[in-house]
């Protein structure tokens, strides 16, 4: 009987976690959907903003092309959905952290607000850095390199796929300090070890940049260099954050030591 009650209790707990997870997913999806629907009337203008760096790099009077029948409709919708997700990102990240928060200790819950806020800011900063700075350098460089016999008219479908890949690459790259802080705070990797593997991180940064960016040195440098700098920032901030979020017993041990 005791074993049956224990099993029943475990099943109830598992089901309650599933219900909680569903609730968080629904709330996150609803926020993205509401923002998306509110932005839909301006979908074409949103795409024009996304295409602005490429249009400015093209010769005067040139435009992008759409080769698909429904591409002129689907691509602006796709871009608008991305914008809705970025705007809702703080809420989505909060729902993720709120789901795991009940299983954390009080001192660990102090991680939630700083990490949610900083993760959102860093991801959006990475996307903005890519849009305002990287595209402004890479697109003119690529188009000026094109032979004079070639008329550059990018397809909007290929352009959006490229832009989304770059946004994701730079957004994740700017999350490196958060990754370093979490690794150190959770005790997964010692700070000394992370400092020790600096040379490998630098090599890895250039390898990742070579894989996810166009085959030109400019875009690779613009991804690899920030990645290395952000890694160093993570190493500087991690011990401060770890000290600020220690449990009371950890502080007593540190004082006693």
Summarize the structure in words.
The chain is mainly alpha-helical and 257 residues long. Helix content is 81%, strand content 0%. The protein has helices spanning 2-39, 43-57, 71-100, 106-109, 112-145, 156-173, 176-185, 191-196, 198-212, 217-244, 248-256. The longest helix has 38 residues, at 2-39.
Category from helices, strands and their pairing: mainly alpha
Segments where pLDDT lies below 50 for 5+ residues? none
Main beta sheet: strand number and arrangement? none
DSSP strand count: 0
Number of helices: 11
Instruction: Give the fraction of residues assigned to helices.
Output: over 70%
Distance between the termini: 49 Å
Beta-strand residue percentage: under 5%
Evaluate the radius of gyration: 23 Å
Overall mean pLDDT:
82
What order do the helices and strands follow? HHHHHHHHHHH
Shape: flat
């Amino acid at each position: 009987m005791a074993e049956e009650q224990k099993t029943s209790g475990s099943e109830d707990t598992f089901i309650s976690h599933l219900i909680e997870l569903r609730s968080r997913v629904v709330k996150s999806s609803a926020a993205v959907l509401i923002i998306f629907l509110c932005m839909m009337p301006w979908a074409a203008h949103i795409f024009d903003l996304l295409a602005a760096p490429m249009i400015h790099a093209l010769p005067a009077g040139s435009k992008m092309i759409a080769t698909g029948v429904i591409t002129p409709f689907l691509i602006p919708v796709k871009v608008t959905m991305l914008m809705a997700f970025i705007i809702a990102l703080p809420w989505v990240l909060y729902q993720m952290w709120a789901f795991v928060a009940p299983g954390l200790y009080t001192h660990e819950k102090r991680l939630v607000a700083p990490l949610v806020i900083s993760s959102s800011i860093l991801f959006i900063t990475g996307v903005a850095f890519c849009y305002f700075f990287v595209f402004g350098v890479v697109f003119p460089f690529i188009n000026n390199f094109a032979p004079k016999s070639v008329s550059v008219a990018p397809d909007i479908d290929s352009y959006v796929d490229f832009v989304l890949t770059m946004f994701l690459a730079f957004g994740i790259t700017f999350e490196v300090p958060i990754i370093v802080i979490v690794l150190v705070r959770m005790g997964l990797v010692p700070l000394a070890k992370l400092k020790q593997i600096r040379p490998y991180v630098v090599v890895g940064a250039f390898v990742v940049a070579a894989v996810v960016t166009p085959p030109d040195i400019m875009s690779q440098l613009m991804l690899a260099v920030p990645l290395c700098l952000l890694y160093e920032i993570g190493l500087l901030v991690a011990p401060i954050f770890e000290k600020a979020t220690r449990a009371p017993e950890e502080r007593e041990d540190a004082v006693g030591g």
